[in-house]
Specification:
alpha/beta; Rossmann fold; 7 helices; about 15% strand
Length: about 220
């Protein structure tokens, strides 16, 4: 399944949530900038807040698939598809590389955080958290989001995405209370491949979308 844009994908997914969550306490938390574009369509329909959970994936040298992701609070999570033995081996062989990457990613994320757009944890407490991404490949982002949310006393976790591969869905089925996914993919194409239009603006515009979401409630 292909989509004209992330806006279109968001408009396809939003009606699936309206009847059940329109009058509930919800917060839409995007896992990437593309998720903000898509999640804005959902937040506008549900009359709820929108924010960005800044995450960054880390891959080993010569590997295309991320082995884990670091969150904006510094929490690092390995993809849950790795065994404890595999993790121990990676930590032993790539310790220096991993620590360097963590520091680099945190520095990059801190630059983004200065501009705003993130959601204070207190806005998630007691709420249904709707995790939104424009596509999920592998388990690292979902695992990192789960680790970030674990100490926060939220209500339900609803994962919404236009597409996900099988490893991502396997993890989502374990950590989420509800899933809305339009397309299961089994190839290695990048997320942009599934959208005719790359409608992810610069990060400054992403922050404005988040800050002005109340003006677009429908």
């Amino acid at each position: 399944m292909y989509f004209a844009s992330r806006v279109q994908a968001g408009r396809m997914l939003a009606p699936r949530l309206v009847d059940k969550y329109r009058y509930e306490n919800c917060a839409v938390l995007a896992l990437n900038d593309g998720g903000v574009v898509l999640g804005a369509q959902i937040a506008a329909q549900l009359h709820c807040v929108l924010g960005l959970l800044v995450l960054s994936e880390i891959a080993l040298p010569r590997e295309s698939e991320a082995i884990g992701a670091i969150a904006m609070d510094g929490t690092f999570s390995y993809g849950s598809n790795f065994s404890s033995g595999e993790i121990d081996e990676m930590q032993s062989e790539y310790r220096g590389f991993l620590e360097e990457q963590k520091l680099t990613k945190l520095h990059e994320m801190n630059r983004l955080l200065v501009g705003g757009g993130t959601m204070p944890p207190e806005l998630l407490k007691g709420n249904h958290v709707i995790l939104v991404a424009d596509g999920l490949r592998g388990q690292s982002l979902v695992t990192a989001a789960e680790a970030y949310l674990k100490p926060i006393k939220h209500s339900r976790i609803i994962v919404v995405t236009p597409m996900a591969d099988v490893p991502a869905l396997d993890k989502i089925h374990i950590m989420a209370d509800e899933i809305h996914c339009l397309n299961v993919v089994d190839d290695t194409f990048e997320i942009n491949h599934y959208f005719d239009k790359n409608d992810v603006p610069d990060h400054e515009t992403i922050v404005k979308i988040i800050e002005n979401i109340i003006l677009h409630w429908q």
